[in-house]
Specification:
This protein has about 80 residues and is an all-alpha fold. It is built from three helices and no strands. It has one domain.
Length: about 80
């Protein structure tokens, strides 16, 4: 009467987790490269902005953390 729900048990789960983590890591690398370049130029001109630049450089790290959390949720969803 009711069909069983099919779950992914093969290679799909690790691939999905890898894509989730890799996407966040690539986005973070791209953002930090742009922010780091602009931050170095800004600090060279105005040294008092170093605190703001450190904070702005750390903000994109949340993408990697989010990717790790999503990848962990994907993997642990099967257990």
């Amino acid at each position: 009467m009711f069909e069983e729900e099919k779950t992914m048990v093969g290679w799909e789960v690790p691939l999905g987790a890898a894509i989730a983590f890799t996407g966040g890591a690539i986005g973070t690398a791209w953002a930090q490269s742009r922010i780091g370049t602009a931050g170095a130029a800004t600090v060279a001109e105005r040294p008092e902005t170093i605190g703001s630049m450190i904070i702005l450089e750390a903000i994109p790290e949340t993408l990697v953390i989010l990717g790790f959390v999503v990848a962990s949720m994907i993997i642990l969803m099967l257990k």
